[in-house]
């Protein structure tokens, strides 16, 4: 099994997560997490989701060009991913939502591997 640091490309990580059942794409809108395309009308609040894992990626030409991919599971079993830039280009809505989830202690150990 590969170590997380060895999984260098976003495509490889997304492929692995898809095989592990993380098939939905999430977005944050109005302070709630929504699935793209298969949307629950009200979305999920921070206390209804758990961050299962996350992966950081640095840009090849600029180490400041970093993004983070989060593997997320909802309380009703929906599994998917959401990504955000790191630093200056970060999506403040996504960052605020995920920070709230982390503050609630909603981080699982990495049992999906």
Describe this structure in words.
This protein has one domain (4-103). The chain contains two helices and five strands. It has helices spanning 10-19, 92-103; strands at 24-29, 32-35, 49-58, 66-74, 79-85. It has a five-stranded mixed sheet with strand order 2-1-5-4-3, with helices on both faces. Strand 4 and strand 5 form a beta hairpin. It starts with 9 loop residues before the first helix and ends in a 10-residue tail after the last helix.
What's the arrangement of secondary structure elements?
Elements: H1 10-19, E1 24-29, E2 32-35, E3 49-58, E4 66-74, E5 79-85, H2 92-103
Parallel strand pairs: 1-5
Antiparallel strand pairs: 1-2, 3-4, 4-5
Key features of this structure:
113 residues, alpha+beta, five-stranded mixed beta sheet, 2 helices, 5 strands
Summarize the structure.
The protein has 113 residues and is α+β, with helices and mostly antiparallel strands. The chain has 2 helices and 5 strands.
């Amino acid at each position: 099994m590969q170590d997380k640091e060895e999984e260098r490309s976003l495509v490889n990580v997304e492929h692995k997560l898809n095989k592990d059942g993380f098939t939905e794409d999430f977005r944050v809108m109005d302070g709630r997490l929504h699935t793209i395309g298969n949307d629950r009308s009200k979305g999920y609040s921070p206390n209804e989701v758990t961050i299962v894992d996350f992966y950081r990626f640095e840009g090849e030409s600029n180490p400041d060009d970093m993004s983070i991919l989060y593997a997320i599971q909802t309380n009703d079993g929906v599994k998917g991913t959401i990504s955000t830039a790191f630093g200056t280009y970060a999506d403040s809505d996504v960052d605020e939502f995920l920070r709230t989830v982390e503050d609630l202690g909603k981080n699982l150990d990495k049992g999906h591997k």
